[in-house]
Each structure stands twice: as C-alpha cells, then as structure tokens.
Amino acid sequence: QYEVVGPADPVFAVAGEDVILPCSVKPSTSVVDMTVGWTRPDQKDSLVHLYEDHEDRNTDQIQFYRGRTKLIHQELQRGNASLKLSSVQIFDEGRYKCFIQSKSWNDDTTVNVKVEVLGHPPVITVDGFDHSGGLHLLCESEGWYPEPDLEWLNSERVSLSSETTETHRNADRFSVKHTITVHHRDDRIHCRVKLRHHMLETLIITT
C-alpha cells in the first residue's frame, strides 16, 4: 500500500528566493510512469504543475506560475515528486496539493507554504530630550511581511520596553515604529527587528 507524504510543518520561503515543496511516495517507488500533479485548491484555476505520460504538460497552468515550476525528473525514479518553485512572491503563500496517480492507486498530500518578505534594516533617530534629561529615541523599519517584532536592547543585551509602538500596513507590507527614553548617557542601545529566524539590528551609542 503506497501513500503520498508531505511535510508535517509549514514550508517557509523568503520572497525572491527559490523553495522546494516536498512530496514523495512511501515506500519509495518510481513515479516516472504515473501522473504527478500540483494544484492550489484555494485558486479557481488551480493547476500549478502537471506531469503526465512522461512529460510536463502545463498548458492549463495558472499564468502566474509560468516558467517558475520544476519537477526534478531524475528524482521521480526515487518516488520524489517535490516541486521547485522559483523567485517566490507573497501570492505563493497558501495550501498546495500534491497528487500522484497510477493505474492501480492514487493518493495526495497537502503542503502549507508561508512566505516571508525581509524588510529594511531598522533606522534609529534621536528625537530630543525630556524635562529630566532623558533622551528620546525612535526606531523604525519598513517593508516586512508578515508583521515583524521590534525590540530595544541595552548594552547588556537586556530587552527594554518600548513606550509607544505603531504598526502600519501598506498593501501587503508592514512597517513598525517604536519609541523609548534613555536616561544613561554612556549606553549602547540596539534596535532589533525579528521575523522568525531572520533578524536585522542597528546600534546607537548615546554618549
């Protein structure tokens, strides 16, 4: 009894880069003589890639995927029907179905793709002093997807709490803006923006 398996967790892709959507047959058997299809069940024209009768047949493929999808034909002999998707865009986020069909059986699996857009490095601006001599700092970073986390850290890398936080969404990109007041003059203050395992950070020395 064969089954089609995909990843248990979402596949994370960075906009502009390539990503592999895993899909394979267990136990391993060649799928060269079978039909392998990738679809987007959430799109009305759902075909992302079709391999049938030993060749790719992408005449009905969603326009947006033209020239961006690839099955590795030598991997098909090992039961590996993973799809390579080039130059990922936000539109690629969503659920994909990988189905494999032979004359005697068929099965499918779902791959959940999450897309990340890395924004600009944070910019720190000095925004004046308060009445007790505290230094107002503003940190902003734009161009992210999904919404990133922004935090301030002192020279010991301890997190400092922001006084005001703002998030703006422009089309499908997020920008974040946080302010803080610093009372120690000889401090190194870091502003760090994080999105899952991606991180950008800027330092200001407030001597």
From TrEMBL:
<keyword id="KW-0732">Signal</keyword>
<dbReference type="GO" id="GO:0016020">
    <property type="term" value="C:membrane"/>
</dbReference>
<keyword id="KW-1015">Disulfide bond</keyword>
<dbReference type="Pfam" id="PF07686">
    <property type="entry name" value="V-set"/>
</dbReference>
<dbReference type="InterPro" id="IPR007110">
    <property type="entry name" value="Ig-like_dom"/>
</dbReference>
<dbReference type="InterPro" id="IPR036179">
    <property type="entry name" value="Ig-like_dom_sf"/>
</dbReference>
<feature type="domain" description="Ig-like">
    <location>
        <begin position="16"/>
        <end position="114"/>
    </location>
</feature>
<dbReference type="GO" id="GO:1903037">
    <property type="term" value="P:regulation of leukocyte cell-cell adhesion"/>
</dbReference>
<dbReference type="InterPro" id="IPR013783">
    <property type="entry name" value="Ig-like_fold"/>
</dbReference>
<dbReference type="InterPro" id="IPR003599">
    <property type="entry name" value="Ig_sub"/>
</dbReference>
<keyword id="KW-0472">Membrane</keyword>
<dbReference type="GO" id="GO:0050863">
    <property type="term" value="P:regulation of T cell activation"/>
</dbReference>
<feature type="domain" description="Ig-like">
    <location>
        <begin position="121"/>
        <end position="193"/>
    </location>
</feature>
<dbReference type="InterPro" id="IPR013106">
    <property type="entry name" value="Ig_V-set"/>
</dbReference>
<keyword id="KW-0393">Immunoglobulin domain</keyword>
<dbReference type="InterPro" id="IPR050504">
    <property type="entry name" value="IgSF_BTN/MOG"/>
</dbReference>
<protein>
    <recommendedName>
        <fullName>Ig-like domain-containing protein</fullName>
    </recommendedName>
</protein>
<keyword id="KW-0325">Glycoprotein</keyword>
<dbReference type="InterPro" id="IPR053896">
    <property type="entry name" value="BTN3A2-like_Ig-C"/>
</dbReference>
<dbReference type="Pfam" id="PF22705">
    <property type="entry name" value="C2-set_3"/>
</dbReference>
